[in-house]
Amino acid sequence: MNSVTVIGPGTVVASYDQESTVITNGAVAIQEDRIIDVGTFEDLGAAYPRAELLDAHGGLILPGLVNLHHHFYSALARGLDPGMPMRDFGKILEGLWWRLDRALDAETVRLSAALSLADCTRWGCTTVFDHHASPSCLGGSLNLIAGVVREAGLSAVLCYEVSDRNGHDEAMAGLEENLQFASDHGKSPRLRSLLGLHASFTISDSTLEQVSKQRPADLGIHIHLAEDQLDTRLSQERYGQTPLDRLDHFGLLDGRALLAHGVDLDRHDVSRIAESGAILIHNPESNSNNAVGRLDLEAALSLGCTVGLGTDGMSSRMLGSLRAAFLGVRAGTGDPTSGFDTVSGLLHANSRRAAQIFDEPLLGRLSEGAPADVIVVEPPAPTPVTAANTLGHFLYGASESVVRHTIARGRVLLKDFRHTTLDVPALADEARSATPALWERFRELDT
Ligand SMILES: [Zn+2]
User: Fold this and answer.
1) Which residue of 2, 348, 350, 387 is surrounded by the most CB atoms within 10 Å?
2) CA 284 to centroid of ligand 1, rounded, Å
3) CA of residue 197 to ligand 1 center, whole Å
4) What residue numbers bound the domain in which 140 lies?
């Protein structure tokens, strides 16, 4: 039996829901991959006198964060000049992302994943949902990424984005990649899968038909939905239905579906999503970056929709995404009293969805029996933390703070700000060597 580790002393915030327990001068005891106790530092010290101490230096002790929508493959785009104006969402896809993903080879897929996972670790994310595309390195790409995930030590939910944008054969290869990975890793404790779809406007009816036929009943979809008006317009022009109608028509809109964005939805659509039990994923920084507008969070929540939060490859910093969501609500409503109620459930929704997918009901909570996903945020809060004001601390403090320790399923991935599983300076060196050739391949590709 492995020894017990006590993480403390610090201010324990036991979950991201609105009724979270707060323990001042608290601590969390972990053993192997589980939390075995939560209480005051003094009580846990007395209960586990031989425990190893991981000093929290008085910081906030929080559950590991969950990111519901990321794109590891975007990591090497930083500083890349597409060489053409990207005046609208379609041009952003054609001129940047669909060229970058085609230019990726196995080496740059691996490096992109490792760098993104290092950033997730740095910002306290312990469970990440990735949406991958690398058409020139498609077969086996999810297993390649899974290998990096194992090395990094996080939990991940992977998928490959099926699309007809480079032809039907490639769409079928993407479907096969999802199905193969799902059958390899169906019930793995740290790796799960979804069925990735790019977006309605790039997926033909015959492809959706195949997806519908071949999808195992317990494998939910992970798709970009109505990220921009382009999705609705082209879906109707090409296939005679809205994106949501198409998902419904092919039996893909259900309680296991992850729908990223939802910027261009009407109230009727949102009500149907609420009825289906699917989760909408808000990506505020990405939506601002692409100037596509924003999901009407207030309306979605008032219509009963479950809404979670992602970063869409813009960053790996979930507390930063929460702050962006909050500021987006205030900017959108023009009402300085708005925002708190609207964003208060986003991180909790992420934890609930990850708990469902990993069959770990207590994931995202600091409580006995929960997976040992724990982070410590620095510095200690300079003002009182109570059950009633944790969101204020997240939005105005922790979102601008650094993470001291990241522990995922009992394994310390970041200790006193240093990665323990990934050699980040070496990865950056490798990336600087590999990126010029990647960018050269990018420039040679037509849009
Ligand atoms: Zn995305």
Assistant:
1) 350
2) 11
3) 10
4) 65-357
Residue 259 Cα to ligand 1 midpoint, Å, equals 10
Average pLDDT in the 188-205 region? 97
- Residue 39 half-sphere exposure toward CB, CA atoms < 13 A: 11
pLDDT for the residue numbered 176: 98
CA distance 180 to 257: 19
Q: Are residues 305 and 337 in the same domain?
A: yes
> Which element (helix H / strand E) includes 147?
helix 141-152
Query: Rounded to the nearest whole angstrom, what is the distance from the C-alpha of residue 222 to the centroid of ligand 1?
Result: 10
Query: Domain tally for the chain?
Result: 2
Tokens of residue 47, six digits: 């209960």
For residue 26, list its beta bridge partners: 10, 40
Is the pLDDT reported for residue 1 higher than 60? no
**CA 247–ligand 1 middle distance (angstroms):** 17
Give the Å distance between the CA of 225 and the centre of ligand 1: 9
150 CB-contact burial (10 Å; exposed 0-12 / middle 13-18 / buried 19+): middle
> From ligand 1's centre to the CA of 70, what distance in Å?
6
Mapped onto helix, strand or coil, the DSSP state of residue 146 is: helix
Is position 113 within any domain? yes
Q: CA torsion angle for 220, 224, 229, 232 (degrees, to 10)?
A: -30
Q: How far is the CA of 235 from the centre of ligand 1 (A)?
A: 18
Mean pLDDT of 44-60: 97
The SS3 call for residue 11 is: strand
Q: How far apart are the first and last CA of the chain?
A: 57
